[in-house]
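USER: Fancy drafting a protein?

ASSISTANT:
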Amino acid sequence: MAGVDDRTLAHVKVVILTLLRSGQGVAFTFTHAMNEGYGRETIWISPTTDLRFQFFGSRAPQLNRRWIEDMLRSATSKTGLVVTEEPVDVPQLDRVAG
């Protein structure tokens, strides 16, 4: 998932960690950038998977509750977690540490 911006990654992180903390695994599907040959890939993330989230900026973004809820719904569906476009015109949550 190279090339994802910090804002998107912050939301994906919240979704994945929410599921893992509740003991659930998640299938995560993402697309590859042009320099990686396009295409898409699905990986399985279980509560025992070691993860690392690397952010390029030092400030944590404000979170969009609706975007998190949308991705949580997708994560618990048969398709698994798919990053969607951020919904607009919704209240933001407080910032969370990177």
The chain has one domain: 6-95.
